């Protein structure tokens, strides 16, 4: 049954199928499952304490605390682990010259990019998937309206960090572990900044960081999500245009200056997003349209130059 599933996935996206075939096996699934179950068990112990204050078993406060801890576990697993695996995979391909074969492959760059984003961290996705039932139960028991919206924004930011990690790896010689730590820290601070400056200020209740109580918050959340989606599209266009043309001989900038530049740019973007999401959406859409038109013009010129 698993082989039939992998065959169907391979027919839809060959790169995704290859990544799954390489990584999905019984030992890997067992290790990922064990890590997920152990991590969940450690936060549901009856005598669990936070800041020295015990929470009573199965009370609303206990579920609120559990929900926050699960969010942090899922965030660090997806951010640090996912960014590290993706950056390491692309860095290995550049160093070994595997990217040279992309020019000879009929697979489109977006298929390779999507296949790697979905396939490289697949074991982390599996561990997170196993934690979703407990996460969903905690979400319902804590009785905070619309808390899932903030989870959705966090996942969108994770995708943005993944694309940023690929962009940084293709253009600069950055160690994967350093890249994952810096990007996850910047992304985490950005999430906290957006929460404190735009969402939390109009909330009520003793535990309001993950709830949206006012209808006008929906407009804000959708604006923030639209910003993330548009900037993700822009990064995808850039990566697709550069990915087939980078090989092991392509020069990349040094690591320390590049990582400072990328982290500062990401942090500056998140600051503007927190304080002026509507303005940032207009700027991001304009940048996205400009880059798309430029890339389309370059492809047209390249196609015309190859016609005898």
What does this structure look like?
The protein is mainly alpha-helical. 75% of the residues lie in helices and 1% in strands. It is built from 11 helices and 2 strands; from the N terminus they run H-H-H-E-E-H-H-H-H-H-H-H-H. The chain has helices at residues 2-12, 14-23, 26-42, 60-96, 109-119, 122-141, 148-171, 176-199, 216-242, 255-275, 277-306; strands at 49-50, 53-54. The protein has a two-stranded antiparallel ribbon. Helix 1 (2-12) runs antiparallel to helix 2 (14-23) and helix 10 packs across helix 11. It is globular. The termini are far apart.
Order of strands in the sheet with the most strands? 1-2
Instruction: Tell me the β content.
Output: under 5%
Tally of contiguous helical segments: 11
Low-pLDDT sequence parts:
201-213
Gross morphology is globular
Oligomer kind: single chain
Order of helices and strands: HHHEEHHHHHHHH
Largest sheet: 2 strands, antiparallel
- Average pLDDT confidence is 76
Span between termini: 50 Å
Q: Indicate the structural class.
A: mainly alpha
Count all strands and give the number: 2
Bin the helical content: over 70%
Gyration radius (Cα, Å) is: 21 Å
């Amino acid at each position: 049954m698993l082989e039939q599933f992998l065959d169907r996935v391979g027919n839809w996206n060959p790169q995704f199928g290859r990544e799954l075939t390489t990584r999905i096996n019984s030992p890997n699934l067992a290790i990922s499952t064990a890590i997920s179950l152990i991590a969940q068990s450690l936060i549901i112990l009856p005598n669990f304490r936070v800041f020295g204050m015990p929470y009573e078993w199965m009370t609303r406060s206990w579920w609120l605390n559990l929900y926050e801890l699960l969010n942090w576990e899922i965030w660090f697993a997806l951010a640090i682990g996912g960014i590290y695996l993706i950056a390491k995979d692309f860095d290995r391909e550049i160093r070994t010259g595997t990217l040279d074969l992309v020019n000879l492959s009929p697979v489109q760059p977006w298929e390779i990019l999507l296949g790697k984003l979905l396939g490289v961290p697949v074991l982390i996705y599996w561990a997170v998937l196993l934690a979703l039932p407990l996460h969903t139960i905690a979400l319902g028991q804590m009785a905070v309206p619309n808390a899932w919206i903030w989870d959705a924004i966090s996942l969108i930011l994770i995708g943005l960090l993944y694309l940023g990690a690929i962009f940084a790896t293709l253009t600069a010689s950055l160690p994967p572990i350093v890249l994952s730590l810096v990007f996850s820290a910047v992304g985490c601070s950005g999430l906290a900044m957006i929460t404190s400056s735009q969402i939390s200020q109009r909330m009520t209740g003793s535990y309001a960081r993950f709830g949206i109580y006012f209808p006008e918050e929906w407009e804000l959340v959708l604006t923030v999500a639209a910003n993330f989606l548009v900037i993700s599209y822009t990064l995808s266009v850039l990566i697709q245009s550069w990915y087939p043309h980078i090989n092991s001989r392509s020069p990349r900038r040094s690591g320390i200056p590049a990582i400072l530049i990328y982290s500062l740019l990401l942090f500056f973007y998140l600051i503007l997003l927190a304080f002026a999401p509507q303005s940032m959406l207009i700027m991001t859409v304009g940048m996205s349209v400009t880059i798309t038109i430029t890339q389309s013009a370059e492809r047209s010129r390249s196609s015309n130059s190859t016609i005898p």
